[in-house]
Amino acid sequence: MADIKYIKVSTLKDLVLVAITVQIPLILRVRREDKDILFLPFLGTGDGIVYLHEVNQPLNCKFIAYNKLKGVISLTIAPSDDARYSTVAIIDVAEQNILSEKFFNKLSKEAKSKKKKSK
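^ thats the sequence. predicted structure below, dont judge the formating
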C-alpha cells in the first residue's frame, strides 16, 4: 500500500465538518491507551489521505450531532431526528490496516514533543 498522508485537524468540530461536507456521515474510532483517535480515510489509487483528530480521553458516545443553525456539536448516544442537526455516526474499529503501528507511534511522539514545548 502507498504511504498514507494525513491531515490532523485542530478540533473535533473540524473533523465533523469534513464528514458533513463530503457527505460521509461516519467517523472511524480507534482506542489507543487512554485516548480516542477519530479519523476519516480517503483512499484512492494513489496515496491515501486520512483526516484525523486525537481526543485525550475516551468519548462515551456513538454519534455526534452538529447543529446547523448554531454551528455547535454535541455528543450523543442516539441519532437525532431533528432537522436542525446533521448526525455523524462514530464507528468503533476492531481491526484496520490503513494506519500502521509506526503511524500511531509517530503521533504519540509528536504529542509528547508538544507537551514538552508547552512547559
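The chain has a mean pLDDT of 88.
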